[in-house]
Amino acid sequence: MAEADVAIIGSGATGALMAARLGAAGHRVIILESGPSRSLDHMYSSTIWSRRLKWGGSPVESAGANRIAIPFESGWGTGGAALHHYACWFRLHEEDFHRHSAARIAADWPISYADLRPWYDALQDEVGISGDHERERWRPPGNPYPMPALPIFPQGDIIARGFEALDMHVAPLPMAINSVEYRGRPACIQDGWCDAGCPTGALANPIVLYERALKEAGVETRHHATVSRILTDASGKRASGVEYFDEAGALRVLSTNVVVVAAFSVESPRLLLNSASAKHPAGLANSSGQVGRNFMAHGAVNLYALFDEPTYNYLGRTGGQLVNQDRYADAPGGYGSACTWRIGPAFKLGDLGGLAASRGDLYGEPLTIFMKDAATNLGSMTALVESGGTAGNHIELSSVKDRHGIPTARAHHALDDRSLSALARAADEGSHVLKAAKAREIWHAPFRTEHMMGSLRMGADPARSVANGFGQSHDVDNLFIAGPALFPSIGAVNPTFTAVALAARTADYIGREWRAFASATV
C-alpha cells in the first residue's frame, strides 16, 4: 500500500489549495516543501525581513535579453510566493483563452473562459475579494465581488484625474484583501507591508486560507524536503513515488498513488527534466519535447511623478489602488499586446519598490533632497503588458549541481518585439496621463518583467503540449501539474487567481475520477 494517496510538491497557492480539497475528500495527502515552516507569527513589517520569504533554494541562473528576477518572483517555505504576493486577483479575459487564433500570440488554451468561470466565481467567495464589478467595465462575466472595494487614498485620486482628463476610466483594483471583516479575518489596516507578508490575516495567503483545513484533514507537510526525481513503475506510464532529500540530507522515497507538481515555473520543469529514465529519456512527461519550453513573463514599466500636493503614498497596498484596462487586448486604441495599468502602490523608503529605488541614478545630497520630496509628493503606476515569449525562452538543466548533486536550472527569457513595442507605447501614454494629472516631474524606469508562466504548457495536442486541460500529463496518467507553468498564454493580469481556479478545477477532477488514477483507494 502506498504511503500517500497524493504527494504534492510545493505548498504555495495551488499546492495548498489542492491539498486542502483532496484531504477534505478523505485522501491521505503529503506535501513536500523545500523551504522552512512559516506561520503568521513569523511575519514582520520590514524590507529586510521580506527577503526571507523569497526563493532560498537551489540557485537559478537567469539568462537572456530580459532576465527574470527569480528570487523576487518566487517563494520559499510554507505558502510559497503567495506568502509575499500583492493579492491583485484578476480574471483572465475571455479573449485571452484564444490569443493564438485571434492574434498569433503564444498558444490557445484547451479550455475556455466559460469552462473556468464556475471556479472563479466560487473561489472569490471562498477566498474573499474586494472590488467593484460595475466600475470594472472590462471584467468578463462573473458574480459580483463578495466585499466592497478597498479605500482609495490621495495618490490614487490624483492620478485618476489624469485618466479622466483623457477620457479614460479607472476602477478599484480587485484584491484578495479584506475591505471589511470577512469569514473571521479582519479588514486591512492599509499600512502597505504586503511584500513582507501580512501578519493580520487580512490578505488571503495560503496560511490563512488553508492552515486549519489542512490540519483538520490530516494533511502532513514535510518541510526542508528537496525533491530530486519523480519515479515511475516498470511501464513508465504511472508515477510510483517521489524521491527527495530530507533536512538532514538523507535520500528518501515517498510512495504515492498520485503526484501533483505544484512548484513554480522554473523548479517544476527542472524536476521533470531531472526525472529522465529509460522510459522517459528526455525527461518525465516530455515526449512532446515541450517540458521547459514556452517560458513567459509579463513586460512591465513603472512610471513615476512628483506632484505639488501630498499623495500620502505610504497608505494603501503594495499592489496599488486602481486599475485601468482601456487598452486591453484588441480594444480600440490598444497597444498590440494587452495592457493593464495598476495605479497608486504604497511605498516604503528603500529596497525593491521603495522610494529610493525609483531614482537609482541619484546619490548623496541629490538623493536626500529627492527623498524628502518623494516621501510627501511621489505617485506611481505600472503598465503590465502581455508577452507571447520568444522561441528561445526555455528552462534547462545546468552543468552546475546543488548541494544534493541535483542539476540546477538555467532560465532563458526575452520579451517579444510586440510586447516591447507595447511597453514603449504605454510609457508614452502613461506620461500623458500623469501630465494631465498635473504632475510637475515625470519619468519611467527601465522595462522589466513580472511573474513567471509557461514552461509546462497545457493543450489538446499531446505532440505540442505537456498536459491536458486538467493539468494531467499526456504521458503519465497519475501525474498532474498545477500553477502558472500550465498557461498557454498569459494575458496582461497577475496570474494567481487563474492559477488557483485551475488548481481547484483539477482537484475536483481528481476527486471525481479517483479510481482512474489511483492503484488503491482509501
Relevant terms:
alpha/beta, seven-stranded mixed beta sheet, seven-stranded antiparallel beta sheet, 12 helices, FAD/NAD(P)-binding domain
Topology:
Layout: E1 4-9, H1 13-24, E2 29-32, H2 47-50, E3 60-63, H3 70-73, H4 99-103, H5 113-128, H6 154-165, E4 171-172, H7 206-216, E5 220-222, E6 226-232, E7 239-245, E8 251-261, H8 267-274, E9 296-306, E10 322-324, E11 339-343, H9 364-377, E12 378-385, E13 394-401, E14 407-412, H10 417-436, E15 441-444, E16 448-453, E17 479-481, H11 496-512, H12 514-517
Parallel strand pairs: 1-2, 1-8, 2-5, 3-14, 8-17
Antiparallel strand pairs: 4-10, 6-7, 7-8, 9-12, 9-15, 9-16, 10-11, 11-12, 13-14
Helix pairs in contact: 1-7, 1-11, 5-11, 6-10
Description of the structure:
The protein is an alpha/beta fold and 522 residues long. It has one domain: 3-Layer(bba) Sandwich (FAD/NAD(P)-binding domain). The protein has twelve helices and 17 strands. Helix 1 runs parallel beside helix 7, helix 5 packs across helix 11 and helix 6 crosses helix 10. The longest helix has 20 residues. The chain is globular and about 70 Å long. The mean pLDDT is 96.
